[in-house]
Amino acid sequence: CLDKITFSRDDLVIDCGSNTGELYPYLKKVVPELEYLAFEPDQKVYDCLLKNINDEKATLRSEALSDKSGMTKFYNSTYGADSSLEYSGEKSYTKVKTIQLDDLELTNIKLLKIDAEGHELEVLQGALKTLSQIMYISVDFGPEKGEQEERTLPEVSNFLYENNFKMVYSNNLRDIGLFLNTNHYQE
Questions:
Q1: Phi (first) and psi of residue 102, to 5 degrees
Q2: CA 111 from chain center: how many Å?
Q3: What are the CA-CA distances from residue 65 to residues 93, 128, 171 (Å)?
Q4: DSSP one-letter code for 141
Q5: pTM, entire model
C-alpha cells in the first residue's frame, strides 16, 4: 500500500514488527531524508535488523508495542516469522519488554505500519492518544490471532473507524489495509 502515500523529507514512519527491516530500503529509495522508527521484539531478528540498518535517521528498538507497558511472554514461532505476544499454541517463549506508543509522545507521524502477528488491536489501543498525530496506518490483519488463527480485520477496522480513520485501500493478496485519518483528509 506504500505507493498510495506521498512521502516527504523528514516524514516519520513507525514500523511495528519491522522484522529484519524489509520496509526500510524502499522508504530510503523514495525519500532518503525520512525518519524511521522500528520496533522488533524478537531478539534474533532484532540482531539482523541492527546489521541491515545503519543510518542516523533510523531508530531501532527491541521492545514490542502493546496496550500495556511492562514485561510479557513473547511466543517464538518455529516455522516462520509468526512470533507474537499472542499465544497460538507455541510452547517456546521469551520475556520481552512492551511499551505503549503513547509513552513516546510522538507527533506528526506520516505512517504507522503494524504487523504484530494478531496483536494489532492492542498496539492501536496503546496508541489512543497518538492516533490524532498519525496520517496513515497500514495494518496486516491476516489470520494470525491465537490458536484459532483469527483475522483481526473486524476489531481493527471498527476501532479505527471509531477513532476517525477510514480504509482507503486494501490488498487482499496480503490481508493489508491502509487507513487514512479523516482529520488529515482534504478533498
A1: -60, -30
A2: 9
A3: 17, 12, 24
A4: -
A5: 0.89
